[in-house]
Amino acid sequence: MRISVGIFLIAVGGIVAFGIRDTSGPVDFTVVGVVIMLAGVAGTWLSYAVANKGRTDESLVIRPDVEQQYRTDPQSSPLSHQIDVTPTEYRERH
């Protein structure tokens, strides 16, 4: 069932549930309409879940070997020189 079929079932169920006011027969059209609407909601959700079950956002996941490559520990590898963080306009000219 595609999403469009689920939306169609929701619309038809709404028309049957709220548009038909025939109480003379043994069938309660309000209940039938609500059941059709629930089937449409379930079908829409199911088709969305099936269509997107294989999708993952790979850009948010960092592989462990790549993470290890860029991991730094300042205590284990101190810099051999000091880093000058003074803005360039305030540095002394050599």
TrEMBL record:
Keyword check for RNA-binding: no
Species this chain originates from: Kribbella flavida (strain DSM 17836 / JCM 10339 / NBRC 14399)
Pfam families: DUF6458
InterPro entries: DUF6458
Transmembrane segments: 29-51
Tree of life domain: Bacteria
Biased composition (Polar residues): 71-85
Keywords per UniProt: Membrane, Transmembrane, Transmembrane helix
Region of interest (Disordered), residue spans: 64-94
Protein name: DUF6458 domain-containing protein
Domain DUF6458: 3-60
